[in-house]
Amino acid sequence: MSSSNRREFLKSSTVAAAGLSLPYFFTGAKSIADEQKAESANDRPLIGCIGTGSRWDAVGPNAMKLGDVVAVCDVDADHAAKGRQRSEAENKKQGRERKVDVYEDYRKILDRNDIEIVTIVTPDHWHSKIAIEAMKAGKDVYCEKPLTLTIDEGKKICKVAKETGRVFQVGTQQRSEMGQLFLKAIALINEGRIGDIQKIHVAIGGAPTSGPIPIAEVPKQLNWEMWLGQAPLVDYRFKQGPGWGNSRCHYEFRWWYEYSGGKMTDWGAHHVDIAQWGLDQQGVGGPVSLEPIMAKFPTPYQDGMPTQDDRYNTPTEFHVKAMFPRDIEVAIRNECNDLGFDNGVMFEGTKGRFLVNRGKLVGAPVDEMKSNPLPEDAIQKVYKGMTPSGGNAHMVNFFECVKLRKDPISDVYSHHRAMTTCHLANIALRLDRTIKWDEKTEQIVGDEQANGWLSRQARKGYEVTA
């Protein structure tokens, strides 16, 4: 049997079995990760990596445990070369001498019929365009968070995902890993251990300031025009400093609204997601209003726009009061030191409260698990009937769902709902006024100016279309 036919056979036979009984990973059979280790090189899914910067150093190797990278792409030639070198070394380490092609233009990867899966690890403002085109090209997608730059982009991604039936995992690893602390937290809510949720406190950290950043020569290895993509064509800026220095590019793109959403989308994509996942367990819908309580920006703003273009512009401190149905408040802040934590999510219910972050799960309902443990299937219930496995659980879940043709634990639809809250919070902060949201129409109510911010005009040639 040819490798391509065998892959299709495995997919169809697994789906058929899932329709008749529990998924195979409940039967005691080997996991897909173990199964693929034992298969020959031609039987492993082929992967194209779009974006090979610092974050890819985690995403790429995790994907290579389950499939073979055959192509990498980056608009920074140094990043691309590093991606190629690491991919070929990993292929060799696993006994497969496989050449890895290098491209500057991501469309070269999407044009290849042999590539089945793509990882997208680019700056945020590139996620949606590449992801939509990848799905249309018949690829299954693993994309880093935050998935979108605007609410309109999220609507387009959801539309194309439904139309194409592609499997799409968003890189919100808290839903799978971190010692399963967040899964246990959601299971506690699902099992009624805190009663009805009354309030949620979310602390996601603040953003840095930069001061003036001078115009600088574009590095020779960087295609700056293509890096900018849909964003306005502007000068490259860089100032030497500790760590990465200060710039408009690479890691520091997070602190510019032109390319991202500051901490509100960078860490909000993690913790606001957990807050709304908890609300989902009790059938609570999306936000109905968002009120800016406090914000400190590193540059003056006028009509929601920064008045200086030579420095970071996302808020360094903030507090947004997001109201949800049943009069539930979700307070999104840079820190909650008055409550004893500066990063994490605190759920308050009618029966108690607990705090969860990447290092701990604490509170009376947690202590009570010693005498009243969660049911054996509690984690599986919140993990869509599947079982997270080990330190690479999020990527394993994606590859398992590729075979099963089902939505993974961090699907585009739940992520779009969480990012909608984050994007609305940013709009409220920038305009410095309360906005009201209609979840059914996905429109801001009674505010024409704010409604205009649900999308952005892309630079010609870089439009995001569904």
From TrEMBL:
Write the lineage as a comma-separated list.
Bacteria, Pseudomonadati, Planctomycetota, Planctomycetia, Pirellulales
Q: Which residues form the Gfo/Idh/MocA-like oxidoreductase bacterial type C-terminal domain?
A: 214-283, 392-463
PROSITE patterns per the UniProt record, alphabetical: TAT (PS51318)
Residues in a coiled coil are none
Q: Per its record, what are the GO molecular function terms?
A: nucleotide binding
Q: Which protein is depicted?
A: Gfo/Idh/MocA family oxidoreductase
Natural source organism:
Blastopirellula sediminis
Residue ranges of every copy of the Gfo/Idh/MocA-like oxidoreductase N-terminal domain listed in the record: 68-171
What is a single Pfam family found in this protein's UniProt entry? GFO_IDH_MocA
What the entry lists under InterPro entries is as follows: Gfo/Idh/MocA-like_OxRdtase_N (IPR000683), Gfo/Idh/MocA_oxidrdct_glycsds (IPR050463), Gfo/Idh/MocA_OxRdtase_bact_C (IPR043906), NAD(P)-bd_dom_sf (IPR036291), TAT_signal (IPR006311)
